Amino acid sequence: MDQHHTNLMGTVHGGRILNLIDSAAGVVASRHSEGPAVTASMDETLFLRAVRVGDVVHVDARITWAGRSSMEVAVRVTADRWDRAVAPTVVATSHLVMVAVDDDGKPRPVPPLETGTEQEQQAFHQAQIRREHRLALRAALEAQP
């Protein structure tokens, strides 16, 4: 990261990290769905540590759940210093819902997610819980006068 990415605190602007998260999620969702995918929601974004000028940022994203046309993507952002042999530190995590779209911008079907390992099955189950919470929150907010 360089100086034009900084905020008033002299660290990398959170919006820049969000941009990296969204971009990585879009790539992973597009690859899984074999076509365009757009961001429907971004939630549970945690900024754990500040990113500084000179840090090398790594963004890892993976599909944790897939439905008819939507997918949840878990993103983990790490950073390490360019000039030191230090293990990367987790600086942010997030979960996004991406929707596969056709040429007209309408939702289109996505392939099911194969969960082979115990870790993948656990991530899938946790994603289902987050989905239920998102849907319940939306319903509660829409029910308000």
Short descriptors:
alpha+beta; single chain; 145 residues; Thiol Ester Dehydrase, Chain A; 4-stranded antiparallel β-sheet; 32% strand
Describe this structure in words.
The chain is of the alpha+beta class. The protein has one domain: Thiol Ester Dehydrase, Chain A, CATH 3.10.129. 32% of the residues lie in helices and 32% in strands. Strands 1-4-3-2 form a 4-stranded antiparallel beta sheet. The longest helix is centred in the last third of the chain and has 26 residues.
Q: How many beta strands in the DSSP annotation?
A: 4
**Secondary-structure element sequence?**
HEEEEH
Mean pLDDT: 93
Counted up, domains total: 1
User: And the CATH topology?
Assistant: Thiol Ester Dehydrase, Chain A
Distance between the termini: 46 Å
Question: What is the name of the CATH architecture?
Answer: Roll
The share of residues in helices is 25-40%
- By CATH reckoning, the class would read Alpha Beta
Radius of gyration: 17 Å
Q: What assembly state would you assign to the polypeptide chains in this entry?
A: single chain
How would you write the strand order of the largest sheet? 1-4-3-2
- Secondary-structure class: alpha+beta
Overall geometry comes to globular
Itemize the secondary structure elements and their pairings.
Elements: H1 14-33, E1 37-47, E2 55-66, E3 70-81, E4 89-100, H2 118-143
Antiparallel strand pairs: 1-4, 2-3, 3-4
